[in-house]
Amino acid sequence: MKVEIEESKLQTAYANACDGVKDFMESLFGKKVFEAAKPTLDDYKTIRTYEDACKALGEPIFEDPNNLPNHIIALMKLETISRALWGRNFQPKPDGEGSKVYWYPWFALWTKKEVEDMNPEQRGALLSASANSGAIAGFGSLYANNRSSYALAALGFRLCQETEEKAKYFGQQFIELWAEYLKFNFTVGNRLK
User: Fold this and answer.
1) Which residue segment(s) compose the domain that 9 sits in?
2) For the chain, what is the domain count?
3) Residue 151 phi, psi dihedral angles, 5° rounding
4) What is the dihedral of CA 116, 119, 124, 126, to 10 degrees?
């Protein structure tokens, strides 16, 4: 009997295995097969967990001595992961001229059907209280209006990525951390393998 395993699936299994299982897999398939599976700043897809991000950055895993709220710990972990996903050579800088585009994971908290099935009171609760703004999600953001100046920071820049593909990976691969950070009563969907 012949069994075929895709290399990417084998590497994912290796990345999620404990040390004893990793040793077994290396003896069975050879160490070279798993070199690409080790977390590195040269390939963002090797960053599959918060611990992978810490390994790639050479940083210790965060231990909480102060009993911080879970959403704050999740945000700290997301910021670490974001830096690892940026890679070795990318240095994000805010662009005052607006000529650079950065990408942020986008989440749908309700499906279209769920919104359609809501009663008018529930649907109204989804709208922003600001009549001139419509519905603003802006999780962890700053919004100032009707003052001597106008400022809008709708996203946490430290959580942005330089490509749409990376932002999508960041949102899907780390969906549980995003859910903990955003802390709403919604179900978590698929995770990339």
Assistant:
1) 1-38
2) 2
3) -135, 140
4) -50
